[in-house]
Amino acid sequence: MKLGLIGKPGAGKKTLFEALTKSDPDSGHKGDLRIAAIYVPDPRVDVLSAMYSPRKTIYAQIEYCLGRTAGDKDLQLKAVADCDALIQVVRNFPVPGMPDPSPYKDIAAMDEDLMLSDFVVIEKRLERIAADAKRGKKADAQEMALLDQVKQMIENGTPVRTQPEIATAPLLRGFSLLSAKPVLVLINNDEDDTALPAGPPPGGIDLMVVRGKLEHEISRMSDDEAAEFLKEFGIDEPAIHRALRRSYAMLGLISFFTVGEDEVRAWTIKKGALAPEAAGTIHSDMQKGFIRAEVVAYDALMAAGSYAEARKQGTVRLEGKTYEMADGDIVNIRFNV
């Protein structure tokens, strides 16, 4: 999963990128593309690792991409074209020499930029189809219908993501439409401000408040220092962890686990994926030769205390090719190739 950070200059994209990824400041390459992969915190992995004492413990990963933080806006958007979703950072704190923050207006302005970028892509494709038609090449009727729908939505000021069946249409996948991507908005507040901006928030937008400078400070601390700091200020967890979970939910992702003495590992799949697809996430041979999946729910394993006890209690079950995976499933794939 790859998430791209976007936003106006001065919004705090760089600060939040470094807080999310715990990467070092990179002032020497201002404006360059930055990509960092991080492990997704999951207390279930910690518990399973303590239970099995494996040689390796592997968390699910998420990749963050930060485009240009200065200069050409189009280059910033182009840098995130291949991302699965976008995180828009919106300034809600005063900066000397800059206008007063207007977070909700900034959200709307970014949507306009995303739609304008998509409009250019759609227009170029329609022009090419028209040119091909003059040479006798017949257009794909389904593609044309989708392109016309997208163009009409944009002309009406409606982001493509508001129509999921269009946004996820396979025929449109190659266009990397920006307004079709899910968006999580991070309202970047001052250190002592935890409230949403005044006024009604825009509809259809998933947003949450973060305090970028504070999160950046926490990300520089050791685990023990961070825990003490959070306790002192009555903070349950860093907002960055919540942003990770919201990103997962926004993309419709869930986690399942494989466990053993060699390795405890979290795997990421789309909600609704069937058991063979989950097997393919581990290895393509497992999907090709899938026979059965031995499954126990995480909560059932915790209640039993051990895999052997869960089996005695009958909560370990065999599932076939039509089984829809659930978040927290612990699986052992039976296959033959």
Automatic annotation (TrEMBL):
Membrane-traversing stretches: none
CDD domains: TGS_YchF_OLA1
Any one Gene Ontology cellular component term annotated for this protein: cytoplasm
Keywords tagged on the record: ATP-binding, Nucleotide-binding
Domain TGS: 252-335
MF annotations from Gene Ontology: ATP binding; ATP hydrolysis activity; GTP binding
SUPFAM superfamilies: P-loop containing nucleoside triphosphate hydrolases, TGS-like
Species name: Desulfosudis oleivorans (strain DSM 6200 / JCM 39069 / Hxd3) (Desulfococcus oleovorans)
Protein name: TGS domain-containing protein
One Pfam family cited in the UniProt record for this chain: YchF-GTPase_C
Taxonomic lineage: Bacteria, Pseudomonadati, Thermodesulfobacteriota, Desulfobacteria, Desulfobacterales
Domain of life: Bacteria
